[in-house]
């Protein structure tokens, strides 16, 4: 349990007041229309969505996740966190294409890219999936906060889980995305400042960088300083094939939409940007900050490792960065540090609440239930959806135990079978809605089979995660490729309209020729 | 003809060109060098500062290569955005279904 002085509580309460006041300051802007409540009227300069990308992807569970992999693998663990590198190519390919489509959501994009019944099924499927996923993400982020509060105050996990998400929902309910993005800007600034200060403080407290290196040398653990320390091609904890798989997924994934779970969050930031250029720069810069932040954490976690080198339990060393900071910062700064933890927590919670509500409102209510709804009604539906997603997240949060295991499963194993279709839908005109839909259904089934069910019954051995990825990718191909060729291509009129508006990259020659023939380009 | 095109017409900017490819190659390299440069710099290792400087240089190069083209695409696209948004609202209200 951490001791808090008056000054510590002062920082925490001041921070909460500032954040909640965002909801009141931007209340009028958020309630103007559906576009304002969910996309801030599509008028943001690049640095605002960029700060939101950074703040959103700095969640309470993120330092645990980064600590987990760096403590275990040394600096090689940085590659585990490099999945956000998909934005390197996405910023200049799929971001540009998606921004030009103007779709509010990825689900809406499906109905622009594909046509007919298949596109409607996909829109409903992706929307429903995203409502579920946002509750799920909120659950795992909130339970991480529960664990931090348990460590800091000895509260039961459920108090930390519910309390701060509920406070956050005040400004999300009031001002929608305006509140989210404006609070994110402040939260991102506070979080980055505190991550730098707390990490340097922790490093200095154990004797400085030279002491870290000296201790690693004397412990015979120098390999931890090498980010390319492979344990073989296929064998060991960090084989080359795993590294190759991660780079392959992260970098080429930027050609597609939805290749990373973060795409869905980023797509909202892309559409809230003022121009195509602002969208590209926001995604690139926000992700660059995420990677720099991971690097700062990595240095601090090495300091934690040399101080506490023999922790075996994942649950214990996952809290390493928090422990290093809580135990080394002076009185008064501890409260400021906790305010920063709240900042990183609230920025993620607010984003996922608004994003889940966006899919529920735009794709389910507005499109399927009440297409003629007024702007006022849509904003209210957005608020009610936000509340329902918040309550759902409490249930999921209470069901989760081991954060790292769930993150690996949800981040890429569960999406492995749709990784290639997510790219094909962007770059190949012939890929149709039935092919894409079949890949989703196959992926969900195969991922549970390969990761959980078959190993449990001893049918296959427990595969390392990179082999699970390749297995799921190949199994998925066996389903969606035949389905695509056995069903008709999309309607040419629909494809031409999409092509002229979005100008996708890749194999679009027949559609381009048709557009030229019609004098549209 | 220069290696990197800096002046674009609207029609040229709409196409996918070698500048996009160059940006897609530089961009991940910039990310990797920034990330590794920062962690080694925090550990006060000399090569960390060298890698970090390389990362910053790559970022500036990326901007130099892609900014003129992105600016042109953005300017042209904004002229058509209103019409596209109206079409989007028709789709959500089932008025534009075929």
Quick overview:
The complex is a heterodimer of chains A (about 525) and B (about 100). Chain A has a single domain (about 35-405), classed as Sodium/glucose cotransporter, CATH 1.20.1730.
Helix-and-strand structural type of chain A: mainly alpha
**CATH top level of chain A?**
Mainly Alpha
Q: What are the secondary-structure elements of chain B, in order, as H or E?
A: HHH
Rounded to an integer in angstroms, the radius of gyration calculated over CA atoms of chain A is 23 Å
- Encode the helix/strand succession of chain A as letters: HHHHHHHHHHHHHHHHHHHHHHHH
Helical stretch tally of chain B: 3
**If helices are DSSP runs of H or I spanning 4 or more residues, what is the number of helices of chain A?**
24
| Assembly state of the chains shown | heterodimer
Average per-residue pLDDT of chain A, rounded, comes to: 91
Helix content of chain B: over 70%
> How much is the average pLDDT of chain B?
92
Ends apart, CA distance between termini of chain B: 46 Å
According to CATH, the homologous superfamily of chain A is: Sodium/glucose cotransporter
Question: What's the number of structural domains of chain B?
Answer: 1
The largest β sheet of chain A comes out as: none
Task: List key phrases describing it.
heterodimer, A: 521 residues, mainly alpha, Sodium/glucose cotransporter, globular, B: mainly alpha
Word description of this protein:
The complex is a heterodimer of chains A (521) and B (98). Chain A has one domain: Sodium/glucose cotransporter, CATH 1.20.1730. In chain A, 75% of the residues lie in helices and 0% in strands. The longest helix of chain A is centred in the middle third of the chain and has 49 residues. The N and C termini of chain A lie far apart (66 Å). The mean pLDDT of chain B is 92. Chain B has one domain. In chain B, helix 2 crosses helix 3. Chain B contains three helices and no strands. Chains A and B meet through helix 8, helix 10, helix 11, helix 14 and helix 17 of A and helix 2 and helix 3 of B.
